[in-house]
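Data card: per-record layout.
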Amino acid sequence: MSTPVFRFAPSPNGYLHLGHAYSALLNFDMARKAGGRFLLRIEDIDATRCRPEYETAIYEDLAWLGIEWETPVRRQSEHMKDYRTAVMLLDANRLAYPSFETRAEIAHMVADRESFARWPRDPDGAPLYPGLAKTIPDAERQIRIAAGEPYAMRLDTTKAMDWTGSLTWLESGTGPSGENGTIAASPEAWGDFIIGRKETPTSYHLSVVLDDAAQGVTDVVRGQDLFWATSVHRLLQALLDKPEPRYCHHRLILDGEGRKLSKSTRATGLRELREKGASAADIRGMVGL
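The structure for this 289-residue chain is written out next.
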């Protein structure tokens, strides 16, 4: 039996809060209990929001909590070539296509339709992409790309699911409504989702699948807000011939009004709590560990 491998993968686009502490500590504790490895990964594909000082703060906060991780730390920004190769493979297999509309244009197109109130939305609440770019001839696509027009690469989810067939995952945690056990993946709920852009040849969904596979992650322990995204990850794993890790989605740490914590919420920021005299043991108690 292989050694269990757990990971915590924050984005350096703000300071860590209690929700991050819970997830990091839970992964660290589970790795130690299982006699496994604990990895830290920096998910910094968003060059416009990620900053070096936030990355430094991540290391400082986790060390203060008593968490130890293996080095070197994997940074997504250093592996763009791998992500680009995966997108090119999906494109070569006619499973992906470029779309040229901006987010604002897509929202306007959907809003103009009489069926707007009934327009399907993904599990995060965003309107599904209408699929208009599927009808653009290949020659026109290449001309527009060569001219430097911005674009996003989208997975043709219907074709992809025809390729893979039905998929499931084994859930040892709980979903938002208490889901547990064998879960049927539903990638179609996300429509033709983005897997990369002209300026950034990847997306969260694509990079997390490739990173977990590259690092040999066996156990993905993360918040319930990513429960339904697992459908997308299972689809990409099947398409790219990557292993399926074990999944365990945990409860979220919420604010006083029952909302998911934000990095802008100073009252729950680890640095602020430390400055007010909180100890690492206090943080464990605050998140219920």
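Known properties of this structure: The beta strands are 5-8, 37-42, 74-75, 96-99, 152-155, 168-171, 181-184, 194-197, 219-223, 246-250. The two ends are 28 Å apart (CA to CA).

See the next section for split statistics.
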